[in-house]
Amino acid sequence: MQASRKSLEEINNTVSVNKEGKASQKLLSYLGPGLLVAVGYMDPGNWITSMQGGAQFGYTLLFVILLSSIAAMILQSMTVRLGIATGDDLAQATSRYLNKPLAFVFWIIAELAIIATDIAEVIGSAIALDLLFNIPLIVGAIITVLDVFLLLFIMRFGFRKIEAIVGVLIFTVLVIFVFEVFVASPHVNAMLEGFLPSKTIITNHSILFIALGIVGATIMPHNLYLHSSIVQSRMYDRNKEESKAEAIKYAIMDSNIQLGIAFIINCLLLVLGAALFYGMDSDKLGGFYDLYNALHHQPLLGATMGAVMSTLFAIALLASGQNSTITGTIAGQIVMEGFINLRLPNWLRRLVTRGLAILPIILCLIIYKGSEAKMEELLVFSQVFLSIALPFTLIPLQLATNNRKMMGKFKNKIWINIVSWSLIIILSILNIYLIYETFQEL
């Protein structure tokens, strides 16, 4: 199952970098891959888990977002080092490291994780289309198949243009939510206390379920595959250690800056859910429709401003779904090429992935007669699955980046090993506990 080509060959080593300028100029030339990775940390899956977490449990789960974001920065920095130091992406490294049967199992899990990610994108986009244009959910889900043609059109302009488009959409989402949280007037002291750990996150099954959904939506498996490949788009010298070291330095800075923005947006989502819904009948609140309606009918805003606020929210949701479509497609290509060395036309790869994602959504809509609540429940379950699939991505990442033969001087430091193995063990234990508790209640 060894890959015989460069990772994402069409963009590998195609974006020039500033090699002689000041540090700030060099950083600017490396900014971009982190934007595409950050998209996965603020997709519709994050929206629903963060908003439901805020609606049901107030600001308690801000600590989980903080912890997840710090862990994400560490893990993404590991993928950066892997991609630049070895020239392999994580899928290629995994297929080289494991025997063929085991690598095949890991490939299937990676593909399922990408489908779960795509489910969130489809649901988010379909709901946004319904909110903006009153398009039925099942029609909106089918319309999202056309995303493939939009992506193919954008990719014709080059990878740097894709990064710029994604950056503009992220900035748009950030501005919208800063404004909307300001209007929602959250309790600042309670919000700050939410960044402190609480034992109820572990002891309360309902909180744990949402917490794992937040982890699954924050640290996403496909992002680890994605980042290890797209950092290789920059034109650093592949044969010089000092050039690789500089590329790693600036790529990690890019990653941390963009993930910092994603952290802020995720906190804003949870704070918005808590400020508007906490203390109410939270079992019936915290979804996209609830937030849209609450903004639309907010007494402090008035009819006109309420309509503007709710429309901005729906536009941000649609932008988020489209952003995630771009990165999900690229990650799917990396996984398929890296694990089984199979290259498909981008449009065919996208149609297959999107078709597999739409199927459970359509079945859910038919069975539950177009229930909006059931759609949002399916989205939360998709994020919990991502959390369960995460260790199958983290273990190969840890083993590969700690292999001196592969990494050379860029091998993991001791503290990185401690943190990554702790994440793997803790997350696995929590997942087993959650599955056991869920079956006990059936």
Automatic annotation (TrEMBL):
Pfam families (alphabetical): Nramp
Domain of life (superkingdom): Bacteria
Transmembrane segments: 27-44, 56-75, 104-129, 135-155, 162-185, 205-226, 259-280, 300-319, 351-368, 380-402, 414-436
Keyword Membrane (UniProt): yes
Localization in the cell: Cell membrane; Membrane
The keyword Isomerase is assigned to this record: no
Keywords tagged on the record: Cell membrane, Ion transport, Membrane, Symport, Transmembrane, Transmembrane helix, Transport
InterPro entries assigned: NRAMP_fam
Membrane-protein topology: Multi-pass membrane protein
Coarse class of the protein's main subcellular location: membrane
PANTHER family: NATURAL RESISTANCE-ASSOCIATED MACROPHAGE PROTEIN 2, SOLUTE CARRIER PROTEIN FAMILY 11 MEMBER
Protein's name in the database: Divalent metal cation transporter MntH
Organism (species): Staphylococcus marylandisciuri
Phylogenetic lineage: Bacteria, Bacillati, Bacillota, Bacilli, Bacillales
Primary gene name: mntH
